[in-house]
Amino acid sequence: MTNSKHDSSGTFKIKVVTVSDTRTLENDESGKIIEEKLKEKGHEVERKVVEDDKKQIAGALKQCSYEALIYCGGTGISKRDVTVETLSPLFDKKLPGFGEYFRKKSFEEIGSKAMLSRATAGITGQTPIFIIPGSTNASELGSKIISREIGHIINHAKRP
Asked: Phi and psi at residue 132, in whole multiples of 5°?
């Protein structure tokens, strides 16, 4: 595999969806972190908060005209954590490398607790969807990883 340059330039419309029964737009620190990181890169960002409810989670995707979505929260192992189960079946293509890399970097910060992370990503139609945990640390890490590669991933997803 060669180390070729890839086109990651451009600004994109990205939707950040926080999945939580307790957060609002006003007190959603994790969503704000992701929004700020993406805006630093020049992207247009809209934020939304939905409850840990399959219909609301899927609904945020269905009413979307954005070039990428980032879901934050609902990735734990409790019965209320249904983000991964709701969205993964909708992926036309899975991006397992994202979750693997997220867990690797998480391990460097939090050790073996990283095994609880169910961060994942995939492509639905031509839209990349990232799913990351809802903690502020996970949002920092996830937005750092995503903001580096989002343009490249969006451009590839749009190819025929």
From this structure: -130, 160
Q: Considering the domain boundaries, does residue 53 fall inside one?
A: yes
Range of the domain at 74: 13-157
Output the pLDDT for position 2: 35
Residue from 77, 80, 87, 85 nearest 129 by CA: 87
Share of the chain above pLDDT 70, in %: 93
The C-alpha R_g of the chain, in whole angstroms, comes to 15
45 close to 32: Cβ distance less than 8 angstroms: no
pLDDT in tens, 65-99: 899 999 999 999 999 999 999 999 999 999 999 99
Domains: count for the chain: 1
Closest CA to 75 of 153, 148, 138: 138
**Residue bearing tokens 């391990």:** 107
